[in-house]
Amino acid sequence: MVKNNFKILGLISIFMILINICIGQKCECLAKDAIKHNEEFCKVTGTVVDIFVANNKKGKPTFLNIGDKFPNQDLKVMIWESDLKNFSKSLDSLYQGKTIAVYGLIKIFNDKPSITIRKESDIEILKSK
Fold first, then answer.
1. Both ends of the chain: CA-CA distance in Å?
2. I need a surface site. Which of 28, 35, 80, 113 has the fewest CB within 10 A?
3. Pairing relation of β-strands 75-79 and 27-30?
4. pLDDT value at 49 more than 80
C-alpha cells in the first residue's frame, strides 16, 4: 500500500513538472507558420490585407485576413459582432494595412488557422503602412 502511494506521488510530480514546462513555453510565430500551431496559445504576427464582414452568417463575424485575401490568407482573426463594442474604432480604421500581433488560441478550420478574439487588447499594432 505504501509503495503504491509513492508511485502515485511520483507520477503526480512528473505530471506537474511537465505541465509547468509546457505552460512556461511561449509560442510566437509568423502568420504563415500559424498552421503548425493548432490548439496552441500563440502570439502571431502579420499584416492585415483584407477585412470582411460575414453579414449572412449567424453572429455576423468579422474576419481580419492576415498575409493575403480570402481564400489564401495565412491566418484569419475572427471577431463576433457582439464583441465589436470592445473596440474603440471601426476595425477598418484600426487594422487595415497594418502589421499586427494577435494573441489567442489557434484553431484550424477548413485547413486554415484561425484565432477568435473578443477585445482590442488582444491585438497589438506593430507597424502602419
1. 67
2. 28
3. unpaired
4. yes
pLDDT tens, residue by residue, 19-35:
544 555 689 999 999 99
The DSSP code sequence of 2-57 is HHHHHHHHHHHHHHHHHHHHHHHPPEEEEGGGGGGGTT-EEEEEEEEEEEEE-TTS
Residues 88, 95: contact at Cβ < 8 Å?
A: no
In CATH, what number does 27-127 get?
2.40.50.140
State how far the Cα of 1 lies from the Cα of 41, in Å rounded to an integer.
41
Residue-level length of the chain = 129
Q: Is the pTM above the cut of 0.85?
A: no
β-strand partners of 103 = 43
Which residues face 101 on adjacent strands?
45, 124
Give the helix/strand (H/E) hosting 70: none
Domain boundaries, the chain: 27-127
